[in-house]
UniProtKB/TrEMBL annotation:
This is Autotransporter outer membrane beta-barrel domain-containing protein. Pfam families: DUF5649. It comes from mine drainage metagenome.
Amino acid sequence: RHVDGESARASRSAGTGITQAVGAGAATFNAGAGVLTLGNGGNDFTGAVSLIGSNVSLTNNAATVLGTSNVSGTLDVGSNGALTQTGALTVGGAATFTQNSTTPSTTQDINLGSQANDFQGGVSFAAGTGASINNLSLENTYATPGTLTLPASITGNLTLDYTSAALTLPVVGVGGALDVTASGGITLDGTVTTGGSQTYNDAVTLGADATLASTGSGAIDFASTVDGAYALTVNTGGLTAFGGAVGNSVALTGL
């Protein structure tokens, strides 16, 4: 089915691929309180796609642009190309974003850091078979979100901004630079390795023994305090900077 710049409404699964004409405008799929499934591998959306429904899934065999969307349940998006947004995403349940591009470049980027998104459940990022994620950014404004899940490695930069909440950073390898902001504090649960710098813009708590390493001698910068009854190991040929007290509230077992 051809989708042009006008809104298209769907309240059930789309059984055939949807191809959007080159140069077409935005498309809106509105299932109201119903389930919305756009999971055909032949889908080819070129304009921004806005999604409204309870549990929503979208597969796109091209770069994907998400417009303003409101999903009361789960959201599952797979993109065979860069995944970006032009409007905020509000998701009541778990959200999963999968990069399926096997072409190493910015076509593997996932940029969800440009809008005031409201992810209320957990947010997961994954790479499909033979694919990887290059640059990844995420902004979340919700005050009590679920768990963040990342792939074992990201080839480019990782930028995380939790404007109103705490964030637990999982074990991850980052080929470029890491920049983490979480107004409620950042918890480190293990090893974080980057090729470039690491910047922690808010107070850090150790939830386990943590090793922070930069293989490219990037700076490792703590803008605020560091606490937690665990050991912190920092390995870099570059500068390590502490902008606040270390172990003042809860002493570290080693540094």
